[in-house]
């Protein structure tokens, strides 16, 4: 690494940002009744809350600060990142060092703070709340939606590289089936002039949750954003959009209209949507299958469970 890159890293992290914003103010209605008392972001993917996975991704990409946007009553999300000295000393006394390492992981990832979104006015409004805690020198932030697991990790570093090359704002896109576009923010894209990488595209427009017939492409926003600080000015100018909410997508649309460069990195790996029980279960199974302690038995049971001759009366496990 060059001395210049080192200096830049101190200022803004190796991917060009030091603050990662995680909007976690939603009601989690799709997970009721569980989310009556447990924030959706704390539901475990095997044994680790989804928001810890996302925080680890932010830390790996070079962020040193996580700003969680919560809503009144969702303090538990931030508490997960606070050291629990009583629990830690109990585990140490009992010699449970493996568990101790697990509970120490979240508080050790990066500095965590929170801002409160008092009213559920939309993702754009949630992200706008983070401006108040940024340092004057920060010219970009990352936003990671905790519903989205983008795997393998590393797309934010790639987005940082694209921002270094093209400036402006860089988002992550996934290519989704046409009949799913209306669940997403969808990009109107064009090749980059003279661009060598087919997975980096220029964004000419963006529309939130379009009808299938109106979607400009099948490239959808996948919950990872590297936003130039100019986004906060755009967020002050947006009006309620899709679903009557203040949409981040519309602020990005304004940036494009202002002539600000916006690009996407098309992610060709896998992605899980933790925002609904079906997607969450898939993620849990996927992660469990990779774990030495659960994977083999789960694989064996799933194989039996999915066999045409499955008979629940013949098994108890
Ligand atoms: C949000 C964004 C949308 C994006 C999606 C990705 O929608 O508004 O643009 O494509 O996340 O998961 P939500 O799923 O919160 O309705």
Automatic annotation (TrEMBL):
Keyword annotations of the record: Nucleotidyltransferase, Transferase
Protein name (database record): UTP--glucose-1-phosphate uridylyltransferase
The lineage's top-level taxon is Bacteria
Q: What GO biological process terms does the UniProt entry carry, in alphabetical order?
A: UDP-alpha-D-glucose metabolic process
The record's annotation in InterPro entries points to: GalU_uridylyltTrfase_bac/arc (IPR005771), NTP_transferase_dom (IPR005835), Nucleotide-diphossugar_trans (IPR029044)
EC number assigned by the record? 2.7.7.9
Recorded family membership: Belongs to the UDPGP type 2 family.
GO terms for MF: UTP:glucose-1-phosphate uridylyltransferase activity
- Pfam assignment, any one: NTP_transferase
Where the record annotates domain Nucleotidyl transferase, the positions are 20-286
Name the gene: gtaB_2
Q: Which reaction does it catalyse?
A: alpha-D-glucose 1-phosphate + UTP + H(+) = UDP-alpha-D-glucose + diphosphate
What species is this protein from?
A: Nocardia aurantia
């Amino acid at each position: 690494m060059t001395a210049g890159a080192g200096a830049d890293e101190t200022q803004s992290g190796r991917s060009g940002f030091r603050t990662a914003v995680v909007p976690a103010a939603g009601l989690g209605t799709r997970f009721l009744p569980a989310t009556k008392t447990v924030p959706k972001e704390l539901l475990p993917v095997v044994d680790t809350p989804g928001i810890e996975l996302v925080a680890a991704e932010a830390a790996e990409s070079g962020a040193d600060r996580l700003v969680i946007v919560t809503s009144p009553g969702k303090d538990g999300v931030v508490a997960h990142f606070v050291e629990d000295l009583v629990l830690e000393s109990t585990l140490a006394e009992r010699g449970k060092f493996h568990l101790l390492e697990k509970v120490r992981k979240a508080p050790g990832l990066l500095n965590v703070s929170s801002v409160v979104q008092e009213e559920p006015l939309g993702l754009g409004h949630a992200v706008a709340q983070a401006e108040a805690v940024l340092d004057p020198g920060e010219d970009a932030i990352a936003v990671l939606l905790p519903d989205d697991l983008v795997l393998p990790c590393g797309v934010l570093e790639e987005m940082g590289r694209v921002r270094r090359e093209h400036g402006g704002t860089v988002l992550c896109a996934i290519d989704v089936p046409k009949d799913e576009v209306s669940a997403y923010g969808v990009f109107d894209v064009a090749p980059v002039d003279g661009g060598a990488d087919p997975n980096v595209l220029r964004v000419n427009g963006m529309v939130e949750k379009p009808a299938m017939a109106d979607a400009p492409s099948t490239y959808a926003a996948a919950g990872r954003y590297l936003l130039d600080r100019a986004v906060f000015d755009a967020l002050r100018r947006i009006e309620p959009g899709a679903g009557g909410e203040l949409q981040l997508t519309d602020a990005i649309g304004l940036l494009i209209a202002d002539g600000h460069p916006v690009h996407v990195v098309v992610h060709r790996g896998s992605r899980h949507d933790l925002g609904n029980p079906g997607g969450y279960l898939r993620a849990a199974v996927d992660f469990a299958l990779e774990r030495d302690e659960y994977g083999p038995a789960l694989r064996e049971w799933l194989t039996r469970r999915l066999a045409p001759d499955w008979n629940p009366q013949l098994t108890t496990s």
